[in-house]
Design a protein that fits this description.
The complex is a heterotrimer of chains A (about 500), B (about 450) and C (about 130). Chain A has about 500 residues and is of the alpha/beta class. Chain A contains 15 helices and 12 strands. A 7-stranded mixed β-sheet of chain A has the order 1-7-6-5-4-2-3, sandwiched between helices. Chain A is globular. The two termini of chain A are about 40 Å apart. Chain B starts with 7 loop residues before the first helix and ends with a helix. In chain B, helix 6 (about 135-150) packs across helix 7 and helix 11 crosses helix 13 (about 430-445). Chain B is built from 13 helices and 14 strands. Chain B has helices at about 10-20, 50-60, 85-90, 90-95, 105-125, 135-150, 165-175, 195-200, 220-230, 315-320, 330-365, 390-400, 430-445; strands spanning about 70, 130, 155-160, 180-185, 205-210, 235-240, 260, 280, 295-300, 305-310, 380-385, 400, 405, 415-420. Chain B is globular. With about 130 residues, chain C is an alpha+beta fold. Chain C is built from 4 helices and 9 strands, in the order βββαβββββααβα. Chain C has helices at about 30-35, 85, 90-95, 120-130; strands at about 10, 15-20, 25-30, 40-45, 50, 55-60, 65-70, 75-80, 100-105. Chain C is globular, with a radius of gyration of 14 Å. Chain C starts with 7 loop residues before the first strand and ends with a helix. Classes of the chains: A alpha/beta (about 500), B alpha/beta (about 450), C alpha+beta (about 130). Chains B and C meet through loops of B and strand 4 of C.
Chain lengths: ~500, ~450, ~130
């Protein structure tokens, strides 16, 4: 039995289509200074008449509009969200409460440090927690997302090599890596050399050895990698790279598999980023904001983005006097609100709780893997950790593909896994349940997957028609890309 | 551990299904040599009450908008935020959803972003806007890099009156491949078209103009746009105070090719600098060169309107090292908050709110006209000549006011100048008090 | 899978048709458009650009993929197919006709000998799919 039922929700036009002159949803206090006509202050050529197209609606309509639209979203509070590599875990409400404490949330970023000691302490405490968790010596919370953290890490690598008067030219990236890795390396001015995976799904050490030389600035490694497999030869990898003067950058997207068990700093990692919105439970918000904290060995600390938050006497200071820094990547301290949430989470869990979360995340993923492996093809049977990657090979004979499976899961009441990634697996489905799920929820997901497996044999056409129960059936992405309509205007009203 | 839902018995059943004895066995692929052989050196778990007490203790060490009147702007502004925003962005359906990859079950987020793109395009007077970038500073960096891609040129002119932090972030992003030249400000505090023209050449990808600029002065961009276009360079307009666009002529009507900016003014709390919102808009002809996510309208199989992420071949997950940007996550929930803010204020509210800022700032400006450093027109920020800005800030603090930004930190030749901001949140009484303290400080010097 | 006689082919799945007066017309093969799926955008060079054999002269995009376009020959771009800007689907519908991409001036006729005949291209495809 699927757990979905007939969907009851309301249709809702665009806000612009509900606008009528004369309605309003705001209130401002009366102007308490002299009401000088605008044209006496600004030359009429500098102002506009109105913002053409802006809506005019009531407050009730605002609330209904966004509430109705919200009901068309799947979200983690509704059910399991097994997006591999995205770590969709529960977002504790306590995090939201601390992030909204007025004396924390209404502080201006350009105030002098003496007047922001509480928030600086908060940032510094989080930095220290992340240093302990990663086994690294220094950290910055300035990057606004993982991809910006990657850029920071690679720019720091570059700064290090430039200080040795040898900037080097290449970055090695395994073929299973996230697309952000090569994109970040390119921004830092590096050329990318790909390292293939071996048949176990790990970095091919023989090829790494061949391609590593003194012109390689660093290896960008995800560990566990995007197949969920730990790079067990990490000590050997570290030797190969460091012997030639190279560094190792770790994409910490999969840190949820390691907390309390192993620390990147103990594996020879020189610099990494952590996604606070993955491992540390800050909400994804429908695509951000995130926080891409970067931690590094002391060797690289001088290059951290400016300013850094440091302890100083019995207080904290904002240090901008850092001649070797790569410079700032954010106008202020980064996505501070996310730091409040992450620190709340770490302190709530404590060291023992974080380890328990890791254990549970890995247990949940392996349970799903064990229960599904007789139905779905595991392209790499090597033991995996917090996620499991299957392919659509067993569905293929019936003309059913990964995309069809994903869309059927929607009708079964689940968010689909990450699909078609990593690129090295044809028809990949990457399943990461996280520690948040109960056994009942995991079992329901497994049973839905098995039903889909059987249905492929019986009724492939039904698979192609899914989803049927969502707000919309499959959307025409070709049409969207061929003739892009990227905004509303009165002409394209439908 | 209240965030976990397994019983010990269930764990046993699951371990059996997997075929291992104990949980540790699942970590065997981690070599013994790199395992952490001790407990994490972090504190014991805190209960909800203890945690709240801990955070309250930290909060007490801040001076915040809760207890102080702000006359400080410089890229982050204290404005009115309607109550509906937090109510709506706190809905689980928005804040606990992921990036809308599965369009059929993400129509709420997707339609909201489509509306956001429309609102930002309307506000900036441009044809298309993306689904947001991280903040104003990185949005400017992305705009400049996009201009370099479009023109295939490597030089960029930036004004002296560009927010100094934006200038630094631009340097971090482009230091390895672009050259950045600064154009001095006139005595009015604005960008000098003649100086721009003298520096423009056929290698110039873009001229950047900030309005209102870091000194608060509103820029007229038409002339600079014309000069840039004559050399086939692009005009990149940047703003740190997006509320001004409720009143000022938008960059799109002044020849801008790309608009980048900070959206914090539009419904986001100060929050010590983030999360904020990078605004990004451009001309239709450059849409395929844009960084960041884009939502487009299409139809489903029953021909009903729906929305999807589109033009994704620009992005890192497909084009990898050749992508237009490495950006992946954006500031989704902040974009939603800004959408709600703009829809709530609407056509009249955005203008009313902008006018209140203008008129209140001018109330102060008129009364301190003998201290003005620049003669150019301003929106809600003013540079004042003050003998000892740091000392004045101390005095203002005692009066419950966070005073302004001493410019000497960023511009060594401006040690006797302070950037002051007056917004809709400042009452006449506060402004009068501010003026009184300032006039008093003159006597003591 | 249509592979017209008389055209020359590359291993990157472009074709070139020799027109009169030393001009060649270039596009992608039926096989290439089939592999890509629905073409949504074609980025082409400007008229007057100089290409060398094997140069990337543009890209062709489907919803989820981007492929570089390689010039089969050296020469100047005389014309680009501007219809593709509005109707990229022509590449799918008529890859050897309305879906052509550029016309180039042929400067080094010997280069054509290095390209595949229809028969050789068919064999090459068979060999590729055998992997």
């Amino acid at each position: 039995m699927s757990r979905t039922s007939t969907v009851y929700n309301l249709d809702e036009p665009l806000i612009f289509e509900q606008s009528s002159p004369g309605k309003s949803a705001y209130s401002l206090p009366p102007l308490d200074v002299e009401d000088t006509p605008i044209e006496e202050i600004l030359d009429p050529g500098m102002t506009r008449e109105e913002v053409t197209g802006f809506p005019e609606v009531s407050e009730v309509e605002i609330i209904r509009h966004y509430t109705r639209m919200s009901t068309w979203n799947y979200h983690i509070d509704l059910g399991m969200y097994p997006l591999g590599s995205c770590t969709m875990k529960y977002n504790p409400r306590l995090n939201e409460r601390t992030a909204r404490m007025p004396r924390i949330a209404t502080v201006h970023p350009m105030q002098e440090a003496a007047l922001t000691q509480g928030n600086l302490e908060l940032i510094h405490r989080l930095q220290e927690c992340l240093q302990e968790l990663t086994g690294l010596d220094a950290a910055t919370l300035q990057p606004a997302a993982g991809s910006q953290g990657e850029m920071v890490g690679i720019l720091m690598v570059r700064a290090h090599h430039e200080a040795q008067e040898r900037p080097r030219r290449y970055v090695l990236i395994p073929d299973s890596a996230h697309g952000t890795n090569p994109a970040s390396a390119a921004i830092a001015g590096y050329q990318v050399i790909s390292i293939p995976s071996d048949s176990s799904g790990r970095i091919d050490i023989r090829i790494l050895r061949e391609r590593m030389n003194e012109d390689v600035a660093c290896l960008m490694l995800t560990n566990p990698n995007t197949l969920g497999i730990f790079e067990s030869q990490i000590e050997e990898i570290s030797r190969i790279v460091h012997d030639q003067g190279g560094l190792i950058y770790m994409d910490g997207a999969n840190f949820n598999a390691l907390m309390g068990y192993a620390r990147p700093g103990d594996m020879g990692i020189d610099v990494l980023h952590l996604n606070l919105h993955k491992t540390f439970s800050t909400p994804h918000g429908g695509g951000g904001p995130g926080c891409g904290a970067v931690a590094c060995r002391g060797l690289l600390a001088p290059y951290l983005p400016s300013p850094v938050i440091e302890a100083c006497g019995d207080g904290f200071r904002v240090n901008s006097d850092r001649p070797h820094s790569i410079g700032p990547v954010h106008a202020f301290h980064g996505n501070f609100g996310m730091m409040v949430r992450a620190l709340t989470y770490i302190l709530t869990c404590g060291g023992s709780g974080l380890k328990e979360l890791t254990e549970t995340a890995v247990l949940n993923a392996n349970y799903i893997r064990a229960r599904l492996q007789e139905y779905f093809h595991l392209p790499y049977p090597t033991p995996s950790m917090h996620e499991a990657v299957f392919s659509d090979k067993t569905l293929e004979p019936f003309g059913v593909k990964t995309l069809d499976l994903a869309k059927q899961l929607i009708d079964e009441g689940f968010h689909p896994p990450t699909i078609y990634f990593p690129l090295i697996v044809r028809g990949a489905m990457m399943i990461e349940p996280t520690e948040s799920e109960s056994k009942a929820e995991l079992d329901a997901f497994v049973e839905a997957m098995i039903r889909i497996y059987h249905r492929a044999r019986e009724d492939a056409d039904a698979a192609h028609e899914a989803p049927r129960l969502a707000k919309r059936t499959r959307l025409d992405e070709t049409r969207a890309a061929r003739r892009p309509v990227l905004r509303w205007s009165p002409e394209n009203e439908t | 551990m209240r965030y976990i839902s397994l019983t010990p018995e269930e764990r046993q059943v699951m371990l059996q299904a997997i075929g291992v004895e104990k949980t540790e066995d699942l970590f065997e692929s981690i070599p013994v040599g790199v395992r952490l052989g001790r407990p994490l050196n972090l504190a014991d778990p805190l209960s909800e009450s203890s945690l709240l007490a801990d955070f309250k203790a930290m909060a007490r060490k801040n001076a915040s908008g809760e207890d102080f009147a702000y006359f400080l702007g410089a890229g982050a502004y204290h404005h009115f935020i309607p109550s509906v925003i937090d109510t709506l962005v706190s809905r689980s359906e928005y804040f606990t959803a992921y990036t809308p990859y599965q369009a059929e079950i993400s129509q709420g987020t997707l339609q909201a972003i489509f509306e956001y793109q429309t609102l930002i395009a309307q506000l900036t007077g441009m044809e298309v806007a993306n689904a947001s970038l991280y903040d104003g500073a990185s949005a400017l960096a992305e705009a400049v890099m996009m201009a370099a891609r479009v023109t295939r040129r490597m030089r960029v002119l930036v004004p002296e009156a560009l927010h100094p932090k934006y200038r630094k972030v631009l340097g971090t992003y482009t230091g390895n491949h672009l050259s950045v030249t600064s154009v001095p400000a006139t005595s009015a505090g604005s960008l000098d078209p003649e100086a721009v023209d003298a520096l423009l050449d056929d290698r110039t990808a873009a001229v950047v103009v900030q309005s209102p600029n870091f000194f608060g002065v509103v820029e007229e961009m038409e002339e600079v746009a014309r000069l840039a276009h004559r050399r086939r360079a692009l005009l990149v307009a940047v703003t740190t105070e997006a509320l001004s666009l409720g009143l000022l002529k938008p960059p799109g009507e002044m020849g801008a090719d790309i608009v980048a900016g900070e959206g914090q003014s539009l419904g986001l709390p100060l929050s010590f600098g983030g999360p904020y919102l990078g605004l990004f808009a451009t001309r239709d002809r450059y849409k395929r060169q844009m960084p960041g996510r884009l939502v487009g309208q299409t139809v489903d199989r029953k021909d009903r309107r729906g929305f999807v992420l589109t033009l994704s071949t620009r992005e890192q997950h497909i084009r990898r090292e050749k992508a237009t940007s490495n950006i992946c996550t954006n500031q989704g929930l902040c974009a939603l908050a800004v959408s709600i803010f703009l829809s709530t204020l609407g056509k009249n509210g955005i203008r009313d709110l902008a006018e209140q800022n203008l008129k209140k700032a001018h109330y102060l400006r008129r009364r301190l006209s003998d201290r003005l450093v620049f003669s150019g027109p301003v929106f809600n920020e003013i540079v004042l000549r003050v003998d000892d800005p740091e000392g004045l800030n101390q005095e203002l603090y005692r009066e419950g006011i966070i005073g302004g930004l001493p410019l000497g930190t960023w511009f060594p030749s401006r040690r006797d100048q302070m950037l002051v901001c007056v917004t809709d949140q400042n009452t006449r009484r506060q402004i009068d008090r501010y003026i009184r303290v300032l006039q008093r400080s003159r006597v003591t010097v | 899978m249509a592979i017209p006689e008389g055209l020359r082919y590359t291993r990157e799945h472009e074709w070139i048709e020799i027109l009169e007066e030393g001009r060649g017309r270039v596009g992608i093969t039926h096989h290439a458009q089939d592999e890509l799926g629905d073409v949504v955008f074609v980025e082409l060079p400007r008229t007057g650009d100089e290409l060398s054999g094997d140069d990337v002269f543009g890209t062709v995009e489907s919803v989820k993929a981007v492929s570089d376009l390689y010039s089969p020959v050296t020469g100047k771009v005389l014309q680009v197919n501007e219809s593709l800007e509005e109707q990229p689907e022509l590449v799918n519908e008529d890859p050897y006709g309305e879906g052509w991409m550029i016309q180039v001036e042929l400067t080094e006729l010997a280069e054509l000998d290095g390209l595949l005949s229809a028969e050789e291209y068919a064999a090459y495809l068979a060999e590729e799919s055998g992997h």
